[in-house]
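User: For my dataset I need records formatted as: sequence, then structure tokens, nothing else. Please produce one.
Assistant:
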Amino acid sequence: MLNPELIAEKPEDVGVDSEALDALFARAQRDVDDGVLPSAQVAVARRGRLAGLRTFGRAVQGGTERPATDETLYTIYSATKAIVAVAIWQLLEEGQLNLDQRVADIIPEFGTNGKEVVTVEQVLLHTAGFPRAPLGPKIWSDRAKRLKAFASWRLMWEPDSKFEYHATSAHWVLVEIIQRRTGSDYRDVIRDRVTGPIGLPELFVGLPQELNDRVADIVYMGEPVAPPGGYGEVTPQTTLHFNEPANRAVGVPGAGGIASAAELAMFYQPLVNDGVVPDGTRILKQETIEFATKVRTAHHVDLMGAPVLRGLSIVIAGDDGKANLRGFGRVASPRAFGHGGAGGQLAWGDPASGISLGYVTNGFVDLQSLGRRATAISSLAASCAL
């Protein structure tokens, strides 16, 4: 759990409207009460502290179905990408990495089959050209096998010629860059340089074995269906692999983080507060955050024909009236940024209001229901600022 000093005594102490917060909680509870979801957890933070957290429903945890509580943890899927991103942003700030560097100059094993030209920036923006490169659960935990896989990967198209979401492949490359530049395991780097300094002891990229009994197992609430877009290994079967303790321990960098909604909401607080945590520790310079959250892909469109508004491994809400399609609802400012996850996980912060949201669930539903829920939850969260 969070340090009690990071939890506001009442929402108004951090400029959050209690009634608006209660409306958000009620909307999250409704899906559980109606049987749409087995459990859900939602949190809002502002001014460096948690304004409120609620958990609803029941979930299988450690093999036993029991009530979900505020201590229940959830798989956050692609919301993990933003956590990895901050470690990369730190390397950029320190001059240990440049966006125009070729990945092969950092990871020689990657420089095969035409991938020699791929840059760090292209990997961060999902324009690198290897969106469906295979690297499944059988080799997740073996670095040598991952590097061998890198060498076998081929480009599907010329780098930067189009955008296609690299569901997991890009972030395996990014964490290898982190390891090459720091000399340490990426999971240790993220804990020591990112989640630790922010004060998030239970935001995990690589879950300790002893905490598995607190993680809500994922369930499909209907017929399991793969997401649109042909995301390669991202199938219902792979999604359910994260119910296995061994796979949670790996810390899959594009999809395998484990956290509570509170930890997710608090992760974004320093990012919308000039890079500073409440004790005065600075994890990033403000100019680095602005540089990293600048839209760099507006010339590309997604599967629905909407402009792709991506920063460096982050999604930006934008002012084109389509922020709801990106998970930000209809109220957050165009400057809001974050990264959601499969199953409807929501995680973002808004520099204009200072609000940040974490929403997690263990229930996978159809995409239409998920989209409506995301719009409602994010809109209500953004409306909480006094």
